[in-house]
Amino acid sequence: MTPDLLTVPEAMTVLKVSRWTLYTLIRSGELRSVIVGTRCRRIPAAALEEYVTRLCEEAA
């Protein structure tokens, strides 16, 4: 089962991308993320699903 909020390394593993690529997606607004506390960035599992769905739709 996938947790509701993933760490950056966990999201990198799911998407099979580098840290640089993941942060580029976040900065560009293509991938939503949240800040927990003052420094902890987390990626909602739903945001990963939305991103992958959008990629698949654009490829079709």
What does this molecule look like?
The protein has 60 residues and is α+β, with helices and mostly antiparallel strands. The chain has one domain (5-59). It is built from three helices and three strands, in the order βααββα. The chain has helices at residues 8-15, 19-28, 45-59, and strands at residues 5-6, 34-36, 40-44. The protein has a three-stranded antiparallel beta sheet with strand order 1-3-2. Strand 2 (34-36) and strand 3 (40-44) form a beta hairpin.
Number of DSSP E strands: 3
- What is the 3D form? globular
Q: Please identify the structural class as seen in this structure.
A: alpha+beta
Percentage of helical residues? 55-70%
* Rg over C-alpha atoms, rounded to the nearest angstrom: 11 Å
Instruction: Going across the biggest sheet, name each strand in turn.
Output: 1-3-2
Stretches where pLDDT falls below 50 for ≥5 residues? none
Please report the number of helical segments.
3
Largest sheet geometry:
3 strands, antiparallel
- Gap between N and C termini, in Å? 28 Å
Percentage beta strand:
15-25%
Pfam families: HTH_17
Domain Helix-turn-helix: 5-54
Organism: Sphaerimonospora cavernae
InterPro entries: HTH_17, SinI_DNA-bd
